[in-house]
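Hi everyone,

Forwarding the result from last night's run.
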Amino acid sequence: MTVTLGEGHTPLLPAPRLTARLGVEVWLKCEGANPTGSFKDRGMAVAVSRALEHGAPGVVCASTGNTAASASAYAARAGLRAIVITARGAVARGKVAQAVAAGAEIREVDGSFDDAHREARRLAAEEGFVNVNSVNPDRIEGQSGAAVEVVEQLGGLPDVLALPFGGGGNTVAYARGFGEALPRFLLGEAQRRVDTFASAIRIPTPVHRTEVDDVLARSGGAIVSLGEEQLRRAWQALAREEGVFCEPASAAGIAALEATPQPAGSRVVCVITGHGLKDPDAVAA
């Protein structure tokens, strides 16, 4: 059985005001248009389908929020139990609401995402649940389809792919989807990984760091370490200049592009990973 909620086929939008301001041709891959509002749905459809196929009693994940919302929805669709492990008080309210609404069991741990991830792995190892974090290769396989879509929609390979860098799974997935010919990967990470206001990339230790380093070496790419004000400005500018409301972490690729000028006329695709309604409290803050 294929578990799906109609994920994928998200818009690739031109960004004329960002293009004029930055001197490069900017496109926005709007992954917030997926069913639960983030890019996670692509990989979750595959991971939960495989879990169901293998007769797993349920799925488990550690999450800063988007994985929790996605895993909970797809598990509900499949009729499977979902357990979500989060760092206490570290997940945006909108994402917790999605997981609770879908019937997931939420367990909080004292500490960081790293601590939550250890607990998720323990449950998978000891109780037979399928871990649907990006350490699951099915997640990477599903997410890799976004790269294929970008090439189809753009009519070719972009010069630069800019995206947020939290755990690194999405970077690995895009690289797999592009194949041998890669654009330059420009990754925006928070300087304050432990407590950044961009909660979706609040991950102290990137799980896929070694693989990300390989992607950067092959593509001639770079990681840009961003301050809180840089992230905040890019997030606000995206909504005010282009009308695209995303959660703060989703603008990290835009912030990285603003901080590192690219050759004039370069064609840049910025991956906007999650919808702004994921974290409405960020607006008030």
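The chain is about 45% helix and 20% strand.

Cheers,
N.
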